[in-house]
Design a protein that fits this description.
mainly alpha, two-stranded antiparallel sheet
Length: about 160
């Protein structure tokens, strides 16, 4: 069987080494589509860091600032202001960790959930409109690609 990139593959198996050109082509496409979705957001929308933190809290539940920073692959110091802004705006609630009183735990508030979902809805609306010109087969292919990219993004080995 031949893959979409013209490489031989085995059913259920790996197609082998991926060329840097293949990886670069996918990176460029993902970067362009992400930029288009960011541009579709309202003026004054949350920063990418804030959306990332709120999204992580929505998916994984309450977390310490250190665990959130690690999950977002950032240094805790880089997110200190983000956490403070989100708390000030009532989008997260900070409480003392019951197991370790020296730690704090951040929890997504109902307002934070609403803001995050509204932000996602703007991007989803743009993407749905952009996908209207695609065939049903192309839409299914994008759905498969989304699942594969989600799997790659969740890989704890970072592709190593």
């Amino acid at each position: 069987m031949t893959s979409a990139m013209g490489r031989e593959s085995t059913p259920g198996g790996s197609a082998g080494a991926v060329s840097r050109e293949e990886a670069a082509e996918i990176r460029r496409a993902v970067t362009r589509i992400a930029g288009r979705m960011r541009a579709s957001r309202s003026a004054g929308a949350l920063s990418s860091n804030k959306v990332g933190v709120l999204g992580r809290l929505l998916r994984a539940g309450p977390s310490t600032p250190g665990a959130l920073a690690a999950a977002e692959r950032q240094q805790p110091q880089s997110l200190t202001r983000v956490f403070a802004d989100l708390e000030r705006d009532g989008l997260v609630h900070r409480s003392r960790d019951e197991r370790d009183g020296r730690q704090s735990v951040l929890t997504l508030t109902p307002a934070g959930r609403a803001v995050l979902l509204a932000d996602a809805a703007e991007r989803d609306a743009w993407l749905a409109t952009a996908m209207e010109s695609l065939t049903e087969t192309e839409r299914r292919l994008l759905g498969l690609a989304a699942e594969l990219m989600r799997r790659m993004a969740d890989d704890e080995n970072d592709g190593k």
